[in-house]
Amino acid sequence: MTNQVSEFPTERTFQYQHSLPPLPVPSLEGSLAKYLDAVRPFATEEEYQVTAAVVKRFGEGIGKDLHQKLLQRARTRRNWLEEWWLNAAYLEMRYPSQLNVNFGGPAPYLEHCWPPTEGVQLQRTSISMWHTLQYWDLLRTERLDPHKAGNVVLDMDQFRMLFCTCKIPGVTKDTIINYFKTESEGPCPSHVVVMCKGRFFSFDAVCDGYILTPPELLRQLTHVKQCCEGEPAGDGVAALTSEERTRWAKAREYLIGIDPANKTILEIIQSSLFVVSLDDAKPYATAENYTPVTREALTGDPTIRWGDKSYNSLSFADGTFGSNCDHAPYDAMVLVTHCYYVDQQLKATDGRWKGSETVRPMPLPEELVFTVDDRVRSDVAHAKQQYFETTQDLQVVCYAFTSFGKAAIKQRKLHPDTFIQLALQLAYYRQHGRLGSCYETAMTRRFYHGRTETMRPCTLEAQNWCHTMLLPAASAEAKRKALLLAFNKHNKLMAEAQNGKGFDRHLLGLYLIAKEEGLPMPDLFTDPLYSKSGGGGNFTLSTSLVGYTTVLGAVAPMVHHGYGFFYRIGDDRIVASCTAWKSSPETDAEALFQNLVSSLHEMLHLATTAQL
């Protein structure tokens, strides 16, 4: 995910989009066999036999018909899953998406040139904004090299969704609106929206064909800050985006109904390049403890971020930064790639602007003032109340493990990601006395408009290894053998998932065809082991490797008794964010991280004495 940028590119960013292979449909037999293998760690022998019979009936009966219909669908679409996934995973969901769907995270700049410092918020924001605008220009002019895995070209379509994109609430289903265009496609909006103390401002980030310089951006940001200082806070209409989706849709309709000018303001926010949030919070994070800024990114002030926007850039009063993004239009790797680009640019320039200090004459930011009445104020108050109640229930920890990282793991000829996933399984097993159903993101971008597949790390082999690790009588040799088997199984499943041979999305497709055709729901999806093993979005551990860069993110757990777990792997450190709901008596994110630390040490010791 490095950003190769070419002055005179031989390959344009989106040039291979039309030559990517279609998303394949796996074989029914293969998917059902993998599913049975995946449920085994969660079943007694008796339960397993019942589920095996259910799966056999499905494979020989209704499943065959549904599979044929899925193949038929795949013949007329280059990605049979794309529309379904967007609707089922995101747009049809009715719970509040800002906390349950969005991902947020800390910017890594505090590790080098921008440690927490007061009095530099606006100056740093102007420089960070300038680099972000350069990245937008790279995408506009298609000078960002297409991503590849080895020689295999990866789909770049999601990068069109980073800028000028917003989710619009609907009463039964949301929609995504995207205004981004490359230069060859035509004009693209170039304004940004700045939010401060519950108020909205907008200005064009381009003047006479040139992107505003940091001194010019600073002038605009200073004006916004001066307008808000010593003044009462605005109406905080943005808090409505944190509401339950149908409630927000109705509040939005009402807002437009009381004054047509409100519709214009909404369109300005929706079409903006991105939102900049000037936040008075001072999270004071460190390179070892990112918890305060990660918590603030996920659960901060709802009146100064637009929860439906594809990118909210959060600027804190102590000179640190974060982000909060809607997950519907793209996956985290898009933002990670962008933030890593900014991080590298800041490192190269020591976080300074070395260009012209001249500020051209240009219009000052315009304030966008919604017309509100008592009902809107009441809707905002309700939204804030439910948001604060939920966010106060979310436990967030984010620490750096600095004893070792990728270098030491690879030296022992082990895959770093698999290493951490198995350490997490052992940590959970040690803490809870059982295995946790686990989702890990597998990327399917080698296919047209590919996004993700589920990889299930909680295998029978992982279970056997965890069990062996906690047996006092087990020899080091037995532990090593079990570990190696778990590693090999994990690597095999991940490779299959990335190559379009996972089974979760396939089962989802079969489920959705049955639903769309009004058929009785097949037993496979109502069988207790289906949800117990994580099916239907019931994974206890919701995990993702954010990459091998400096950028990290965080998400809320998928289920009430579960954990959200994101991590990044550096050469000499592993940084992980872990979330849990405080109201669940079972979970404790702090304890899980400490158990993870113990597991990492034990595993490296095991690998060192063995040199597997």
TrEMBL record:
Q: In which pathway does it act?
A: Lipid metabolism; fatty acid beta-oxidation
Active site positions, chain numbering = 327
On the tree of life, the source organism's domain of life is: Eukaryota
Query: Gene3D superfamilies in the record, alphabetically?
Result: Chloramphenicol acetyltransferase-like domain, Choline/Carnitine o-acyltransferase, Choline/Carnitine o-acyltransferase, domain 2
InterPro entries found in the cross-reference section:
Carn_acyl_trans, Carn_acyl_trans_N, CAT-like_dom_sf, Cho/carn_acyl_trans, Cho/carn_acyl_trans_2
Q: Name one GO molecular function term.
A: carnitine O-octanoyltransferase activity
Q: What EC number(s) is this enzyme filed under? A: 2.3.1.137
List GO terms (cellular component aspect).
Answer: peroxisome
Q: Which Pfam families does UniProt cross-reference here?
A: Carn_acyltransf (PF00755)
Reaction(s) catalysed by this chain's protein: 4,8-dimethylnonanoyl-CoA + (R)-carnitine = O-4,8-dimethylnonanoyl-(R)-carnitine + CoA; octanoyl-CoA + (R)-carnitine = O-octanoyl-(R)-carnitine + CoA
- One of this protein's GO BP terms? fatty acid beta-oxidation
Where's it found, cell-wise?
Peroxisome
| Keywords, alphabetical | Acetylation, Acyltransferase, Fatty acid metabolism, Lipid metabolism, Peroxisome, Transferase, Transport
Choline/carnitine acyltransferase domain location is: 23-596
Protein family (similarity comment)? Belongs to the carnitine/choline acetyltransferase family.
Question: What name has this protein been given in UniProt?
Answer: Peroxisomal carnitine O-octanoyltransferase
Q: What is the gene called?
A: CROT
